[in-house]
Amino acid sequence: MVSKNQIKLITSLQQKKFRVIHKLFLAEGVKVIQELLDSNFVLEHLFVSEPILDAVTSSQKTLITEAELKKMSCLATPNNCLALFKIPETKAPIPKGLIVALDSIRDPGNLGTIIRLCDWFGVEQLWCNEQTVDSYNPKVVQATMGSIARVAVSYLDLEKQLENTTIPVFGTFMDGKNLYQEKLPQEGILVLGNEANGISETIEKLVSNRLAIPRFGALQQTESLNVATATAIFLSEFKRASS
Questions:
Q1: Which of 82, 76, 115, 88 lies closest to 13 in space, CA to CA?
Q2: 152 pairs with which residues across the strands?
Q3: How far is residue 49 from each of residues 31, 79, 100, 216, measured CA to CA in Å?
Q4: What is the full DSSP assignment across 30-52?
Q5: How far, in Å, CA of 3 to CA of 218, rounded?
Q6: What is the sign of the dihedral through the CA atoms of 36, 37, 42 and 46?
Q7: CA nearest to 209, candidates 239, 233, 182, 232
Q8: For every residue of 190-201, which 3-state class applies, written as one string?
Q9: How many angstroms separate the CA atoms of 207 and 211, rounded?
Q10: Which SS3 state, helix, strand or coil, does residue 134 take?
Q11: Which residues are registered as beta bridge partners of 82?
Q12: Burial class (CB in 10 A: 0-12, 13-18, 19+), 216
C-alpha cells in the first residue's frame, strides 16, 4: 500500500521546483522504465499494479492498486507502472562532434521528440539554454521513449558557450542557405529556436552558417515547420553528408 505522503511527493514531481528539491523525476510505462533501468540512472522506487519488471528487488518495488496508480500518474490513461529515478549530476559539455543546441524550446513534446531524434541519429550531446523546458518534465521523459538514457542534456549559458566554441555554429532560419546545397561537416553545433519566435537575436549574432529547409509546395504559403520535424530533416542531412 502506498502512503498519502508518497502520493504527495510523486505528484509534486510534476513541478520543476520539487524535482530540484528532491533530485528525483518520474517515469511511466514498461518500455520507458526498462530503458532507464538498463542505463546509468539510479532507481529510487518502483510502483506496479501487477507483477512485472521482475529484475527489480522487492525492497525497491511496491505493488499498488490501479486506483492508487491513477492518483500518482500524469497520464490521462495510466499505465501499469510508475518509477522514481534520481536526477544525476550534470556533466560539463564538450564541444566535440555534432551537437544540437536549443534556444528556448517550450513544448515538452517537442523536446522529448528532439531527444529521441538525437538518439536515433547518434547525437550524444544536447545543449539547452535555461529558458528551454526541463528535460525531466514527465511529458518530456514520456516523449523520449527512453532515449533520455542515451543523450547527455546540458542546461547552460548558451550565448557564452557559443562565444567560446571553436567548431562551426549552424542556425536554422527561413531565409538561410538551402540545406541541400551546402557542404555540411561532421562536427558542428546546430541551433534551433523557439517554436513561435525562432532563434533569439543574441544567439543569432553567434551563428556563422545560416541554413534553411526549402519549401517545395507550389503555393509556398506554409509559414514554418514544427521544430521537432525540422530537427529530423536537418540531422538526417548532416548525417547523410558525413556518411
A1: 82
A2: 125
A3: 15, 9, 38, 50
A4: HHHHHHHHTSSPPEEEEEESSS-
A5: 60
A6: positive
A7: 182
A8: EEEEECCCECCH
A9: 10
A10: coil
A11: 28, 47
A12: exposed
pLDDT tens for the 243 residues of the chain, in order:
789 999 999 999 999 999 999 999 999 999 999 999 999 999 999 999 999 999 999 999 999 999 999 999 999 899 999 999 999 998 899 999 999 999 999 999 999 999 999 999 999 999 999 999 999 999 999 999 999 999 999 999 999 999 999 999 999 999 999 999 999 999 999 999 999 999 999 999 999 999 999 998 776 767 789 999 999 999 999 999 988
What are 84's strand-pairing partners? 26, 45
CB 173 within 8 A of CB 210: yes
207 within 8 A of 170, measured Cβ to Cβ: yes
CA angle (22, 28, 32) in 5-degree steps: 105
Nearest-angstrom CA–CA distance, 73 and 48: 12
- Nearest CA to 188 out of 131, 135, 238, 115 is that of 238
Stated pTM of the model:
0.95
Tell whether the torsion through CA atoms of 132, 135, 141 and 146 is positive or negative.
Answer: positive
Residue recorded with cell 522487492: 58
Within the chain, residue ranges assigned H as helices are 4-12, 16-22, 30-37, 66-72, 108-120, 138-144, 158-163, 201-204, 227-242
Distance CA 17, CA 125 (A): 24
Q: Kindly tell me the sign of the dihedral angle through the C-alpha atoms of 116, 170, 191, 234.
A: negative
| Residue in the structure block whose three cell numbers are 542534456 | 153
Alpha-carbon separation of residue 90 from 79, 147, 178, 204, 213 (angstroms): 29, 17, 36, 26, 33
